[in-house]
Design brief:
The complex is a heterotrimer of chains A (51), B (423) and C (207). Chain B is α+β, with helices and mostly antiparallel strands and 423 residues long. Helix content of chain B is 17%, strand content 46%. Chains in contact: A-B, B-C.
């Protein structure tokens, strides 16, 4: 009985881990994530010249 | 036969002191020891007094004569009490044996030892041992269809007797005992002066057994690990580790798969020759909700390069992020040999909010940066392996925890855990 | 006349039946007569006595199982000895053969007939002495005199209430037992094993 319960829990966790791995949930690099959260994102403008 | 029936209901008066003693056992019990005056009487010879032991101190234990309860699914009555002590490495270890009687199953023992309860009975299934073979710890032999491991040997000495017993005991009688185990079962060879007896024992659930005999719950819980106590980790740990064991190969396989196939597809690559002057690279994103990775590489050597960068969605002209990042790489040689530190690569990932063209741009470099050419590779539909590796490690740790716990339990059982006393 | 089809008690007329083809004696459950079955006739030979109910793993007509072997007790003979009493059950084994199961407060032995040709001096058979039978070494672990007290069911041989005989238990290696019986100047033997009561499956455990 307990085994079955934990099997379900583990299946969900493994499924979650698979989904996160494939779809990169929380996969942003901290530098970019921080930048987005700190509000610098959304600044309009074209930066730098094309190589 | 009517005599035995009457005896079962009646009390017997001690032929020495006249005290009323419960008559509980069947006809095969040979002795009756008075609870009050310590007289040993012969049940097969008109309760003739054979010996008398004064001032015996009743050993510690939860049972008294006449208690009834179930052991191994069979109703038994406590008919006798025998206090025993073993001397092992110069120290006395006491325990209490209760003589059990069942009209259908005969005579056996319930043993109270450090709060542990075990049941043992005489067996005629002798071990396949060479007679008088040496006691070698952990060596094995077969008996009663099981394989037992030799556990310990000791001299057991009787220091208390009371009630009805299957033999005529003498206080101070000694038996040499060799104990072997196959938890939750045990096998003992008891070598008395005149004969050798063989015993099979089983580890009992203490609480269930006490409850069955109607004993109050206030008795001490078992302490230490009994020789034949089975390793019982409990349903939670068992279920968890069993489930984890199944997921070790699954998570390992998925991790490997992600490692091989998770790299994604290169959608752009380029080079910024003079990062100090700025530069950028555009790339077309075809899938949202899938990670895009931007890898920068600068061949710094015992130096560093740090860039101010921005990420823009070209179609909406919206800046997704402004961030800084870079590389540093040092190497050298010291007394420990050669060393390196850092890497000349850095990866940034993001989840594109929309499809279409994006641009990664270097806006400038931090003062002191090594201004070498920087190469950029952008890949999309990148899959991360780290979560699955996390699951793999978690599964592995949980599965292995059971193994470690059992190892520890066994080390404690065999007194190999480094502590002299596991009480 | 065939005993297989059932027959009537010569004393009270009640219907008797035999479960075992080679049964030689049946106790009538109505009039306490014991009935001897001879070639074509039935004959009352004695009384069956009073069998007091005692807790037992073995009950007539109820199958018990020991180590995957089943036994169906069909006859119960109670014997008295110096310190008490024990029961001998005549039972049908899984192979259809009859066995004797002796039951004395959890000391249980299952035995089959053991033809022996040697003879002994009964007075020389003392507890503790060694006996060699067919190259097998035994030690005498019990010697006593028994008297038949009560009978129920059917038996492979005539047994009489009050019949007295001497018996010896010879114990060998690995739970082996041979029982010697001496009555009317004749030795009879049976061989088998001591059985662990805790390994017997019976619907009567909590009796």
């Amino acid at each position: 009985m307990m085994t079955r319960v934990f099997l379900v829990v583990f299946t969900m966790m493994t499924g979650g881990a698979t989904y996160a791995s494939v779809y990169g949930i929380g996969g942003e690099t901290s530098a970019i994530a921080k930048s987005i959260r700190s509000g610098s994102g959304g600044r309009v403008g074209y930066i730098g010249g094309v190589k | 036969m009517t005599e035995t029936q009457n005896q079962r209901l009646a009390a017997i008066n001690c032929t020495n002191c006249g005290s009323a003693l419960p008559a509980l056992a069947g006809h095969r019990a040979k002795a009756l020891v008075c609870s009050y005056c310590g007289s040993v009487m012969d049940r097969h010879d008109d309760y003739k007094v054979l010996a008398r032991y004064r001032n015996m101190e009743r050993p510690y234990g939860p049972f008294t004569l006449g208690m009834r309860g179930e052991v191994l699914g069979v109703p038994h009555t406590i008919v006798g009490i025998v206090g025993v002590a073993a001397r092992i490495w110069g120290e006395d270890y006491p325990w209490t044996n209760y003589q059990l009687y069942s009209p259908t199953h005969g005579y056996s023992w319930l043993t109270w030892n450090d709060g542990h309860l075990t049941h043992s009975r005489k067996t005629r299934e002798m071990p396949n041992l060479v007679p008088n073979s040496q006691f070698v710890p952990k060596s094995t032999f077969g008996a009663a269809g099981r394989t037992f491991k030799m556990f310990e040997q000791y001299n057991a000495r009787i220091n208390y007797i009371e009630g009805e017993l299957t033999w005529v005991p003498k206080l101070g009688d000694q038996t040499r005992v060799m104990e072997a185990i196959d938890p939750p079962y045990g096998y003992a060879v008891a070598m008395g002066e005149n004969e050798t007896e063989f015993e099979m024992s089983s580890y009992l659930d203490q609480q269930a057994t006490l409850a069955s005999f109607g004993v109050e719950d206030s008795w001490t819980k078992p302490f230490g690990i009994h020789a034949i106590q089975p390793f019982e980790p409990g349903a939670l740990h068992t279920g968890l580790s069993r489930a984890a064991m199944m997921f070790v190969p699954i998570t390992a396989a998925i991790s490997l798969g992600l490692l091989v196939l998770g790299g994604g597809k290169t959608i752009a690559q380029g080079q910024i020759d003079n990062p100090a002057a700025g530069g950028s690279l555009a790339f077309p994103v075809t899938a949202t909700n899938r990670l895009v990775s931007i890898k920068i590489k600068t061949n710094v050597s015992n130096s560093w390069a740090w860039y101010d960068m921005s990420l823009t969605h070209e179609e909406s002209d919206e800046t997704i992020a402004e961030f800084d990042g870079g590389v540093e790489y040092y190497y050298g040689r010291d007394s420990d040999g050669s060393w390196t530190e850092g890497s000349n690569e850095a990866v940034f990932r993001f989840k594109p909010p929309a499809k279409g063209a994006y641009r990664i741009a270097v806006e400038g470099i931090e003062k002191g940066s090594d201004n070498r050419p920087m190469s950029i590779v952008v890949r999309e539909k990148v899959m991360l392996v780290r979560y699955m590796v996390g699951m793999f490690i978690l599964s592995l740790v949980l599965a292995a925890s059971m193994w470690f716990r059992e190892k520890q339990f066994e080390a404690k059982r065999w007194g190999e855990d480094g502590s002299d006393d596991d009480d | 006349m065939s005993f297989d089809d059932g027959f009537n008690c010569p004393n009270c007329g009640a219907e008797l039946s035999c479960k075992l083809r080679h049964s030689k004696m049946v106790a009538c459950e109505y009039c306490e007569s014991t009935v001897l079955l001879e070639d074509e006739t039935v004959r009352k030979v004695g009384k069956s006595g009073v069998m007091a109910e005692e807790p037992s793993l073995f009950v007539l007509g109820r199958e018990i199982i020991h180590k995957d072997e089943s036994f169906l007790p069909v006859g119960q003979a109670r014997f008295g000895y110096a310190n008490g009493w024990w029961d001998e059950f005549w039972a049908i084994g899984g192979d259809g053969q009859g066995v004797w199961v002796s039951v004395d407060e959890g000391e249980i032995a299952i035995e089959r007939p053991y033809p022996i040709t040697v003879t002994f001096n009964p007075d020389a058979l003392t507890v503790g002495s060694s006996v060699i039978l067919k190259d097998e070494r035994f030690r005498i672990t019990e010697a006593d005199t028994a008297t038949c007290k009560a009978l129920r069911g059917e038996f492979p041989e005539p047994i009489r209430i009050g019949q007295t005989y001497r018996y010896w238990h010879l114990s060998g290696e690995r739970a082996r037992i041979v029982t010697l019986e001496y009555s009317d100047g004749e030795f009879q033997a049976s061989e088998g094993v001591w059985v662990d009561p805790y390994l017997i499956r019976s619907s009567n455990v909590a009796a």
